Fold each of these.
Amino acid sequence: MSGGGPARERAPGVLGERVARQTGKVGQNVKTMGKFKPIETYVTGEGAGLTPGKVRRLFSCELQLGPGHAEETNFMVGLELEEEYFVIWKETEWDMEAAGAVAWTPRGNFTEPEVWRRLLEAYFRAVKKEETFDGSEFTSIVTSPRGPLPKSEIRALIDKVFS
C-alpha cells in the first residue's frame, strides 16, 4: 500500500464487540471464535446489535399467521451501518421498533445478488424449523422492477425450502 499514513485498523464490529464483552476475549473477531459460520440467522446468532445502513426493498408480502391474522411485511437488504455485514431486515406493521435483522453474513463472503439468495434461503430454513412455517404463509409477494431479486427467484426459494 502506498501513502504516507499508518494503516487503519478495523474494529471487530458489532458482533465481535459483543463476543468480546460476553467472553472477555477482547480483540477476537466473530470469525475467529470457534467454527466460522458464513451465514447467521435470528435463530443461530444475535443480530440485535446490527443497525440498518442504506437499504432497499427485497420484497413485501402478507404474512398469514393464522385465521384472520395477516401482517404486511417488508423484507429489505443492504449493508449494516458499519458496512461489515450484508443483512436481510424484516419489518412488519406490528413492529414497535425498527426493522430487525433476520439473516446476515460478513461482507466479502458472497457477491450480489448471490448473497441475497443465500441469506433469504437461510431465513426461510430458520422459520421452517423454528416457527413450523410451511411456505404458504408468504402471500401477495411484491418486488421492485429492478430489485435485488425478481419475484420468480423468491418464489423458487420458497418452493425449494418448503417442498
Amino acid sequence: MDSNATDLIFGQRDGLASAKLVAVFGLHAASLALLFAMAHGQPASTLGRFAIIAGRWPGRLALAAALAALIAAACLIADRQAGMTTVLFLNAGVLALYVIEYSILLSRGFFKRLLGDDLQAELRLFICFVVMTNAGYFTLMFLKDILLSDSLGVG
C-alpha cells in the first residue's frame, strides 16, 4: 500500500488491524514509560513535579498504559472518521511532544554529564533537540511502515 491510498489503516477487524493497533499502543506505552522514568529521575523537571510520575513505578506504568490506550483509541477514531493521513499526523504530533520532553530531560541529565559544564546549556539543549528530532523522525517512519503494511511479518 502506498502513502496516497485512501484505504483505512484499521479497515477490517482482522489480525493485521489488531497487530497495527498493538504496535501503536506498544510504541507509545514504551515511549511514555521511558519518559516517565527519566522524569522521575529528575524531580525538578516539569513532568517530575506531577505526583503520579514522582511516585512509585506501578503508578507511572499504569499512567503510561492509560495514555497509550487513549492514543491508540484516538488513532482508531481518526482512522474511521478522517483516514490514514490524519492518523499519521496524530502520531507525528504525539511523537513531537515526546521529542521535546526527551530533549529537555537529556540536556539536563545524560548530555550534561557527557559534555560537562564546558558547553552552554542552550547549545547542549540544541544538540539534544537535533539528536531527538532524528530519533523521532525514524520512529515516525518505522510507525508509518507498520501502519501502511499489507501483511504481517517480513517479506
Amino acid sequence: MESSTKEDTYSYYKETANLSKILKIQSYVRMMQWYLPYVNPIINKITSLYQREKKPYIHEPTLFGDDSESNIETLKIAFEQRQKQMKEGELAQTMIGNWIGWNDLGIGHQSGLDCRNKDNTIIMDVKNKHNTCNSGSQKALFDKLSNYKKENPKTRCIWAIVNPKPGCKKMSEKIIYNGVEIEKIQGVELFKLVFSIGNIDYSKQIINIVKRHIHCI
C-alpha cells in the first residue's frame, strides 16, 4: 500500500512537471507568434529596399595598386558590403516606423523627421552611423528636433543612431539645445526603446529575424 502511494505521488509530480513544461512551451510559442503580422509585411519592404538597383563596382587601377583578378574580386565584394551597410539607416526607419504603435513619416512630413509613435510621446530622426552628420547637418537636425519639442513639450525628441561609434559606452544622453531637451539614443538601447511592450523586450528577436532575411537576399 505504501509503495503504491509513493508511485502515485511520483506520477503526480512527474505529470505536473510535464504539464508545466508544456504550458511554458505554449506560452513561448504564443509570444513568438503574435508579432508575425508585423514580420511578414516588413520582410517584403526590406526585400524591396535591398533589391533596388545597385551601383556597379567599377575598378580604378592605381599606380601602386594590386590589379590582379583576385584582388579586384575582393574589392568588389567589399564595395557591395558597404552598399548594404549604407542602407541600415533606411532599414531601421522601416523597421521602427512599421512596428506596432508607430508610423514611418516617410519623406516630406512637415516635421522633417522620420518616425513617430502614434500617441506622439516619441518622435525621432534615424541616422545610420555616429558620423553621418557633419557640423552643418547636425545643426539642421537639432533645429528640427528642438522646434518639434517646443511645439510638443511632452514629446521625447530623439536623435536615433543605429550604429554607434565603436567602443562607445554611453548609449543615451540628454542634450539641451535652444532651451529645450532633446535626446541621443544609440544602438541596442534605441531598439529596446522601440521594440519593448510592457516589460518584455522583443528587440533581439526582431533584429535576428531581419538579419537572417538580409543574409538570404
